[in-house]
Write a structure and sequence with these properties.
Layout lengths: L2 H6 L6 E3 L4 E6 L2 E6 L1 H7 L1 E6 L5 E2 L4 E7 L3 E5 L4 E6 L1 H5 L2 H5 L8 E5 L2 H4 L6 H16 L20
Antiparallel strand pairs: 1-2, 2-3, 3-9, 4-6, 5-8, 6-7, 8-9
């Protein structure tokens, strides 16, 4: 899918956590959270492992894990919240996210703890479109491999 099409289909009624590749939609006192089409198109998602419901999660802490063909990625929480519900349909079939990321493919229903303070960290649709237009190439670039040199191991000092 082309970037222009991805940008055009961004829902107007959502806020966006750009670095986390998530959308957030307010529904009464709760919020619904899902993965944006951009990451769905390029992520090769395979399995969704959410944290259990009724668990409080602070902003930028892990809501769970999404496995791709190449790696497991922590889903970073866009707001401090309590997990109310996770989408069982997505847990059973990740294709629900791929087919309808802004509707049936939602990931979480959350009860925000500090909406007034933390919603300012989220972007409106126009701001997110500008951000994604500027950053989309960086988001697709594979990370540079890290090389670590391990210290020599002394077999005499290993305890089992």
């Amino acid at each position: 899918m082309e970037l222009a099409q991805i940008l055009a289909e961004l829902p107007e009624d959502c806020l966006y956590a750009a670095e986390q590749d998530l959308w957030v939609r307010r529904e009464g006192e709760d919020v619904v959270v899902g993965a944006v089409r951009f990451v769905v198109e390029h992520g090769q998602f395979m399995v969704f492992y959410p944290r259990p419901c009724e668990i409080p999660v602070m902003r930028e802490r892990s809501l769970g894990v999404m496995e791709t063909a190449k790696t497991a990625v922590a889903i970073s929480c866009p707001l401090s919240c309590t997990i109310i519900e996770t989408n069982q349909a997505v847990q059973n079939d990740i294709n629900v996210v791929i087919q309808d990321p802004y509707g049936a493919g939602w990931l979480y229903r959350l009860k925000p703890m500090a909406w007034e303070e933390e919603s300012s960290f989220l972007m409106g649709v126009e701001e997110y479109r500008e951000w994604l237009t500027t950053h989309h190439r960086d988001r697709l670039r594979a990370p540079e491999p890290q090389h670590y040199e391990l210290p020599p191991i002394d077999p005499q000092n290993i305890s089992y």
